[in-house]
Amino acid sequence: MTTTDRADAPADVRRPDGTPRPLPLPVAVVMAVAAGLALLVAFPPYGWWPLAPVGVALLAAATHRRRLRAGAGLGFLTGLALFAPLLSWTNLHTGYLPWVLLSLLQAGYLALLGLGTAWVSPLADRYPAVWPALTGVLWVGQEALRDRTPFGGFPWGRLAFGQDGSPLLGVAAVGGAPLVTFAVATAGGLLVAGVWWTVRARRDATGGGRWRPAAGCAAALVLLFGGGLLVPVSTVATGDTVTVAIVQGNVPRLGLDFNAQRQAVLNNHVNATIALAGEVAAGTRARPDLVVWPENSSDIDPLRNQSANIRISEAADAIGVPILVGAVLTGPEQGQVRNAGLLWRPGSGPDLEQLYIKRHPVPFAEYVPLRRIARMVSDQVDRVRADFVAGTAPGVVRTPAAVLGDVICFEVAYDGLVRDTVIGGAQLLVVQTNNATFDEAEARQQLAMVRLRAIEHGRPALMASTVGVSGFVSPDGRVSDATGFNTQAVVVRELRLTEGRTLATRVGVLPEVVLAGLAVAALVGAALVRRRWGGRAG
Hints:
Layout: H1 3-7, H2 25-42, H3 51-63, H4 68-86, H5 96-119, H6 121-126, H7 131-146, H8 172-204, H9 212-229, E1 236-248, H10 262-282, E2 290-292, H11 306-319, E3 323-330, E4 336-345, E5 349-357, H12 371-377, E6 387-388, E7 396-398, E8 403-408, H13 415-423, E9 428-433, H14 440-457, E10 461-465, E11 471-473, E12 479-480, E13 489-499, H15 503-507, H16 510-533
Parallel strand pairs: 1-2, 2-3, 4-6, 8-9, 9-10
Antiparallel strand pairs: 1-13, 3-4, 4-5, 7-8, 10-11, 11-12
């Protein structure tokens, strides 16, 4: 029998060293599905964040000591139970195929995680104290891969984004989303290790010794969650304030045909801004220093269409302050368009020096890679008639009131795109988004990401959506003035600007590199343990 064969022995064979057998496969299957569902309800709109470590623990227990193929299969089940419902908003107006393909792809990364967890089982058995950290680094490694591949990755569903309201969210100020994911997964590792090794201790020990593993893991959990609350604030208020108005103009009808309603959508935002100007003149609303319109508030290119230009100028002149307009611009080449945040000044119109072009267009939604091949799968790709061209410069937009860090829609999920704006001098993070093709669950999941970014970089932030949810977030993560979904709303709030950089802003990608590197080291270390000990541990 080879080393690998011994390491992957069937569950009903007791190890010579007396270590416990893997869980029965039917039990493991149920646990894997339950793991995905527990992870799911940690995310908005449910927001039961304590269940995220439980989900991690269930998957870790289900895959421990499994054959590699079984570990991958169990991870895939967890991925399906998580991603199929989490991403259900992708099928609301596009049909089932994109949703099914995306869910299967994302579940494949959890299959790799399940395989990796099964592979490192001998290392966890041999050195039980490292099991929680092993769980943490493997989750970070999986997310690092999923966030970047293919076509730039899809970070939706990261553990960090399911901690809206959790004490662990404070860890973002130290190491960003990867460190939050590590903390959540380590908490799950502590849960499974505490239970697993308590069972073993009760079999092997007498008296109080049987409870020591559980007590140790419980103490570590308390320290972990308490540490999130004690993370110091490393940015300070400048004393300067800015009053910002978010205009959520709404659309006549939800769905992909919002593009056919372009003039109506633009008129909604123009008219809502002019109405705000009337309220300001009447003294019933504070005068803003800046107005923010969402992504796709002008899908008619205002640089080429005189009517759109006139309408936006009417709004800017009425309110008397600059408007950050979410616009679709034609070009630069034939058949190409750009998704832009464009500063529109009263009296002078568009400021082309303060123009942000979205750097990460969404594949198969804003552009179609490998179009000929993709068309063989579904001719729905031809709905994307013009490919969006990616910008190259960070979204640093300088207004008279504040320097904005602008990202558009799904870009808020990508660590580097947000950090680049803060490094470039952003005082206020702005997320322009269009949720008209999705639902409220997707919008609230996105707002949770904005909350993490505000804490990560110690900056006030806001999200402006065409249909909702829009709102403001303070540097400590508190959400204010959140709007309803599929409704027109205008919210105005004074924000206190901050200066300085958090540790997360300064170190950037380093925590993720270190933790993902440790994941690779764990995989190599497990191979050595398997070779030396014949796959046995304990």
